[in-house]
Amino acid sequence: MSSPRHSLSRRRFLQISAATLGALAIRGLPIYAAAAAHFTHGVASGDPLQDRVILWTRVLPGDGQADTLDVQWQIAVDPQFEQIVAAGDTQTGPARDFTVKVDAAGLTPGTSYFYRFTATGIHSATGRTRTLPAAGAAQARLAVVSCSNYPQGYFNAYREIAARECDAVLHLGDYIYEYADGGYANADMLNKGRHVQPEHEIVSLDDYRMRYGLYRSDADLQAIHQAHPFICVWDDHEITNNTFQTGAQNHNDGEGEFDDRRRAAIQAFYEWLPIREQGNVEDGIIYRSFDIGDLATLIMLDTRLIARDEQLTHDMNIDTLRRGLADSTRSMLGATQQQFLANELRRSASAGIPWQVIGQQVIMGRKEIPLVADVEFAEDIRPDIASSRYGMLRERGQMGLPFNLDAWDGYPADRERVLDLFRQHANNAVVLSGDTHSSWAFDLHDDTGEAIAVEFGTPSITSPGFENFMPLPENELVAAFMRNSPEMRYMRGLGRGWMELDLTRERIATRFLYVSTIMEQEYLVEETDPMLTVAGEHRIR
To answer: What is the residue-wise DSSP string for 475-528?
Structure first.
């Protein structure tokens, strides 16, 4: 994972480079003209291939007036930039919110590099990145994250990942949240000053840009971007809650046309994240693939925006809900993306690559509504849940209905189509998921009970888990879910953190890692024992 040519450790690199971080400034704060240019949000890299990687920064002119700014970039094999291997020039300006993004090519596979930007003679912070390995690599490590809500807590997990070794960070969505200040926030963190900007719910391009600027001003988020290349997809909160192709649960009257909001959110996403652009950005095509040597093909999908039909809900009457679940035409991927998935699975497997890793947003494993008795809520936790919302859910759970209709459980026919693609075309399919803020592991079976694939769902960075929705003692919560969900192999409703996958040709070892707190900036890290998936078995040992 670290280049054999240099012994500078990740932690030592971060210690050295911390002193050179660009000014922490969110979009819209005053510009201080003592310097001719200001790198305001650190640096980042992303979408690594074997010979290239996206480099990112943001730089403002010192007087705040320039229409364009000339920017130079360099990549070297040493942090002193004595051995520069690639360099170039570009421009930025207000049309892209003074963000800079270049696709730096001509690099060597499986190599760590250092990079920086320069404007008007002023250097940015130095970042560290890495190309994907070529065929013959013995192992690789991926860190998997999702759901980082700024006013819910400190991004301690990001800081910890920055100091560890990995080949790439997969962000499975909910990189930002759209809510107004005080909405979906932790009161203690608001008292500590973690307020969002703008203060209102974000709807316009300027709103989305400012919210990204706030998040990217966070020192821990800057640190992880500075240390590792990211591979990102969006989920719903990069636009608004429970997005689907033509609307969203949280797009309301008075917020304008949904298409305008969608277009603004997509533009800001591409401006502020180190993602490689494909065709017309407005089309929102983010599904793509990466070959990690000949160990694995990583296939990143969009289950949220490009083709998803509107979600079913438990507020529907039971007959309407059952008809919706039985409707075989309802889709999450759409025909074009499904064909892309089939083609990539087939290409990867025919090349002898053992693992086909699917990075996407929502849980694929089956989760029925847990049958928790009313008395458990009434006596132990909160009687209001027993008498209202959960009472209705428990009744539907007794009918064997799924828990989360926003996940693949709400689109069972489309899930069967995807599992059939895994069966036909994949050597070993491993699904990675975010969205729920909790930790999961599943053996994925088709409708006949045949083992097809495995799935791991990452916990959130800060967003709250089941303690906010179903505040049972953890052991009771886990037992209730696992009683009704035979595919489920692991579940943890509490705990903020991330996953790590260690890949070899023979097996994948998956660990869940948790920080002890997000309410303070001092923390401990807890790691689970690795869960092993052996090639050819299609199950978790």
So the answer is: HHHHHHHHHH-TTEEEEESS-EEEEEEEE-SSEEEEEEEEES-SSSS---EEEP
The answer to the question of residue 396 being in a domain is yes
What is the rounded CA–CA span in Å between residue 498 and residue 469? 21
pTM: 0.93
The contacts of residue 473 (CB under 8 Å, 6+ apart) are 380
Is residue 47 classed exposed, middle or buried when 0-12, 13-18 and 19+ CB atoms within 10 A define those classes?
buried
User: Is 280's pLDDT higher than 90?
Assistant: no
* Contacts of residue 86, Cβ cutoff 8 Å, sequence gap at least 6: 74, 75, 104, 105, 106, 107
Q: Which letter does DSSP use for residue 435 in this model?
A: S
Q: What is the pLDDT of residue 6?
A: 39
- pLDDT digit string, tens, across residues 124-138: 999 999 999 999 999
Q: 69 in a domain, yes or no? A: yes
- In 20-83, the DSSP E strands lie at 37-46, 53-61, 69-76
pLDDT in tens, 437-475: 999 999 999 999 999 999 999 999 999 998 777 777 888
Instruction: Say how far apart CA 219 and CA 158 lie, in whole Å.
Output: 10
Q: Any idea what the CATH number is for the domain that residue 112 is in?
A: 2.60.40.380
Quickly list DSSP for 136-165. Answer: T---EEEEEE----GGG---HHHHHHHTS-
The answer as to whether 83 is a domain residue is: yes
Residues whose CB is less than 8 angstroms from the CB of residue 4 and which lie 6 or more positions away in sequence, other chains included: none
* Nearest-5° Cα angle at 99, 94 to 100: 120
Q: Is residue 216 part of a domain?
A: no
Single out the residue in 131, 148, 174 at which a domain terminates. Answer: 131
- Contact present, 68 and 56 (Cβ < 8 Å): no
SS3 for 232?
A: strand
**Domain count along the chain:** 2
Containing H/E element for 102? strand 99-104
Closest CA to 469 of 486, 481, 484: 481
DSSP H or E segment with residue 431: strand 429-433
Among 131, 150, 170, the domain-final residue is 131
67-76, 229-238, 257-266, 373-382: range with lowest mean pLDDT = 373-382
The domain of 32 spans: 1-131
Q: Would you call 267 exposed, middle or buried from its count of C-beta atoms within 10 A (0-12, 13-18, 19+)?
A: middle
Q: How far is CA 177 from the centre of its chain?
A: 12
